[in-house]
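Lab notebook, bench 4. The sequencing result for the construct came back, and we need a structural model before the next group meeting so we can plan mutations. Quick request posted to the team channel:

Model the 3D structure of this chain.
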Amino acid sequence: MMTTQLCNLVLTLVMGITVLAEAASGSVIHLESSPSTITPQLTHSVTLTCSLNSTSGLAHPTSGLVGRGLDDVTYTPDDVAYITSIVVLLDSGVQVARITEHTPAVLLLNAEHNAQVTGNVTGTKAVRGYISITWTYPTQTEVGKYVCEVSGLTKEGRGVIYKTSTQIQTTEASISDLVSHIHQMKLDIATNEADLKTKDAEIANMTTALSTKDAEISDLKTQLSIWRDRSLHVENGSIVIPMFTDWSKTYTNPKFGHTMQYRDTTVRFTRAYSSLPSITWNVGLMEHSKDALLYAVELTNLSTVDFTLRVARYIGATYHFDRLVLEWTSIPRL
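Done. Here's the predicted structure in token form:
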């Protein structure tokens, strides 16, 4: 009975220590290809990603360094303090891409191929740093074994190199693959043609809208020109009424109620107005020998081409002026 309880206690302690050890943080290198197998010139894209990840909460060996020594490992029980560089190489040792703490991610091999490279060494809590290469429509050149090396410093300032490898494999295209690829190309072409038709329709609508706007702008310019022309159309002049002129016509002035002699003078504008203007006038000069004067000036006719002013005087000579000069001005009505 005692032996069984002791065995259970020891087993419990071992399991507890194991759980604590597995929950400990650490750093592990990962290198993977997605997809792992390609059909050259048919596979749309392949991405090779190398990263150094934190293993906090994950099960990993709890003692020592996994690998062939402190300069070549895949896992350390403690998180690396700093990453100095991440390099992806061919199995032959030729560098394919690289990122360092001082330089950005750069493609070093087959740069003329349709490839993009991204990465950083500042990282996050889960991913301490990474580099990723994506080839679009990869060829046979991208097939083969790749090695990734991550160089870093421990908290104690000791250098450590994490290293691992993976393979981008190839498979020959089958008749089914070719048929599927051609079918997809036809679908893409059909989609692109539909998109082009939609874009053409949008461009046509935009062209129509622009034409409408151009017409509106042209109309506004015309209106502005007309308004400016109207606002600047100002004329003026003088009307001279001498004493010895034809005063044979008479009428009853509606304001004074007197019978008065009158003389109408019609003035033609230099340029016709587009609408009836406003006429103002004032006495510029009056010569008279009488102390009391009785006269009237009124507008009797107005059109866009001329106007008529009527000058009237009281029929009795005692109230006559000798000479009258009227100064007039015509302005547009806005």
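The first strand starts at residue 27 and ends at 34.
Will bring this to the meeting.
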